[in-house]
């Protein structure tokens, strides 16, 4: 039995990833902002919800497919955009895109990817989104949109919660730099992780592939590109800018980073077809609510006018089903597939997605539902805190409000 075959959960893949990666690189995947309260709460909040099964129902056939932003996918799980994937395995975004297509789901390519829009477009016919920011340089935005159209991307995903970079203290303590600099601490990591370093050094240097052709600055190194991208973040953006981007794209368009029901309504009014409920994986504003905590209010505010997607804390199929029952069309996940990528490359991503898909389908059968349309608030109840121990996955968090969800 192979190492990956012995992985029976995302947590198992995480343990292998932790062994295979240098500490600073693993912490870059794994860490959050400040004291990582939001990071822990993202997963812990799911434990405050219980699933209520119905028995003696016909679940001989279970259909986990759903339609999100105009595309039918085989399970209600979308691969979130994550930057610099070649840091975690030399195949990087190519491995993830191929695995997503085999799993029958969406791959979201990051603006900060190490593989270009064109390469991913040529690699797979599977559903693809491109994650974008509101840049100061509007010509760069227009260029990205034109390239995405030509490469066959289905949708854009605008990230709106990175006005400035979050305070990621693990990275600061590790001296995490891009590209990695060979300090005394990193020299010790070289000895402990020779295969990772050999793969990094034997292949072309890491670049921000989507920015490299558009930069109007001297220098092509990764540090120069990261500095350029950071300088392009525009703190003055408003809903007018989002509306302009939606009009320019003219197709399915999601806004990622929504935690306020009023913002969800503003996004719908601006023309968004997808609302991604997210706190950026606990990597931006510390003490922001867990997405599952605010999902019911946002689903009620959107009222079916856009597809609601939950992003943050998903580690199990039951997490996905809880989110769908509370009004999400699907969930997004980033760390789970990155753990798989680091643990075993493309086969590791296959393993991560296969585990989650199997869990979703098995838990649907155990719930007594044949398709996702049968999930709703009746299948969820808040955990009676006074009678329970704190959840084992992380510190306890207050239960999400369930009273504002409309049935159906």
Under the CATH scheme, which class? Alpha Beta
Biggest β-sheet strands, sense, barrel? 8 strands, parallel
Shape: globular
Strand order of the largest sheet: 4-11-10-9-8-7-6-5
Oligomer: single chain
- Radius of gyration from the alpha-carbon trace, in angstroms: 20 Å
Let me know the CATH homologous superfamily.
Answer: Aldolase class I
CATH architecture: Alpha-Beta Barrel
Please mark out the parts with pLDDT under 50 across 5 or more consecutive residues, or reply none.
217-222, 394-408
Order of helices and strands: HHHEEEEHEHEHEHHHHHHEHEHEHEHE
Our estimate of the beta-strand percent is 5-15%
> CATH topology, anyone?
TIM Barrel
Going by helix content, strand content and strand pairing, the class is alpha/beta
Number of domains: 1
Q: Give the fraction of residues assigned to helices.
A: 40-55%
N-to-C terminal Cα separation, in Å?
A: 44 Å
What is the mean predicted local confidence, pLDDT?
88
Work out the number of β strands.
Answer: 12
Number of helices: 16
